[in-house]
Amino acid sequence: MTLSPEHREALAPRGHLRAALNHGNFVLVGRDQSRKPFGISVDLATEFARACGLDLEFVEFERAVDVSSSATGDLWDICFLAVDPKRAETIDFTMPYIRIEGRYLAGAHCNAADAGALISSGAKVGSVDGSAYTLTLARQEGAENLVLFENLGAALEALDGGKVDAIAGIGDAMAHEGATRPGARVLSPPFMEIRQAMAMPQGRPDASRILKDWLSEAARSGLTGDILERHGVARSCAILPE
């Protein structure tokens, strides 16, 4: 990809590309033993920076809400977040590139047979404040029974202590946590399909067009699928342009 100096400046006004990472979603990003970030988001950012001929810097956050709420603060140039209409007020999203399920993890003390029964029973459901699944659940039946927590660890502590009947989260994460808790189980069906995209702050149309075009081509060429498979995510989870 050949870019003019003007386009490089539009993408990286600080002279290098700053990519925000959300460590709240371990499906997309994690840290190795030396605390260096790795994962799907890291690889996508690296490939995009290489295609643009830009140096890359990672700006690390622990929660999605920390990324989305800083969109107007000139802290980052690109990010990786689930598409949501509230976030789109300040963030310009690309097409989604991966689909991830949102599921409930019910505690051993919860008798709900499935996700529908959980909600109809009026059970208390813990969820991480500002996450994509919380934003969605807040617009659905049962929103009045949501109990918000600062992070997943706090939500799991409430589940273990019987303060909530279940917690909402990313399907793979819920399965991982459920496997360590006797009697806990992930409920079907998923309550949502979380569609993750790349994005940048609103008000940068030229830069946004470059990012959108690049990601569409990465999906068509199979690069996105290659990256997903590299990190243990099924290639079928990749979303192709329509």
Automatic annotation (TrEMBL):
Pfam entry (one): SBP_bac_3
Q: Which organism is it from?
A: Salipiger mangrovisoli
- Give all residue intervals belonging to the Solute-binding protein family 3/N-terminal domain: 16-235
For this UniProt record, the keywords arranged alphabetically read as follows: Signal
The source's superkingdom equals: Bacteria
Name the UniProt record assigns to this protein:
Transporter substrate-binding domain-containing protein
